[in-house]
Design a protein that fits this description.
The structure is a single chain. This protein has a single domain, classed as Heat Shock Protein 90 (2-Layer Sandwich). α1 packs antiparallel against α2 and α2 runs antiparallel to α3. The longest helix has 21 residues. It contains 3 helices and 5 strands, in the order βααββαββ. Strands 1-2-3-5-4 form a 5-stranded antiparallel beta sheet, covered by helices on one side. It is α+β, with helices and mostly antiparallel strands. The two termini are about 15 Å apart.
Length: about 140
């Protein structure tokens, strides 16, 4: 049976603590190990900070919704925001072989998400950007 939990927060950096608490509480309830909860928090922090920093250039009020679904040995993380249209998968993969002084700025967050997850997809629904991250779990 699939389990589902969601949270909606304002597009404000101060809301990050609510996301962390949501992931921790869900992880305890759903028996996630510490590594999995940490990976989820890392991915969501990257997405949330970038969305708040760049998705609302006019500093308009908006919201972010995060939905966690688990079932059939898979975790799905849906991250939706009502910021400007942006597909983070369009970012070129970060070249982690280059010396840090010669790397382009940006792209490491999505690189990290791609490394941790099994698949990532983007879709635009009306005024919402939605990133769906899937990860196999036990």
């Amino acid at each position: 049976m699939e389990k589902v939990k969601s949270i909606r927060v304002a597009n404000n950096q101060a809301e990050l603590d609510k996301i962390v608490e949501f992931v921790e509480a869900t992880g305890i309830e759903w028996n996630f190990n510490a590594k999995l909860s940490g990976e989820i928090n890392l991915m969501l922090e990257e997405l949330f900070v970038n969305t708040v920093s760049y998705g609302y250039p006019d500093q308009s009020e908006g919201s972010v919704e995060i939905k966690l679904s688990a079932g059939g040995g898979e975790l799905a993380i849906e991250f939706s925001d009502d910021g400007e249209e942006f597909n983070p998968l369009s970012i070129a993969a970060a070249d982690t072989e280059l010396d840090i002084m010669h790397r382009k700025i940006g792209g490491l967050g999505m690189h990290l998400i791609r490394q941790i997850s099994d698949s990532v997809e983007y879709k635009r629904n009306g005024n919402f950007n939605t990133l769906i991250i899937r990860k196999k779990i036990n």
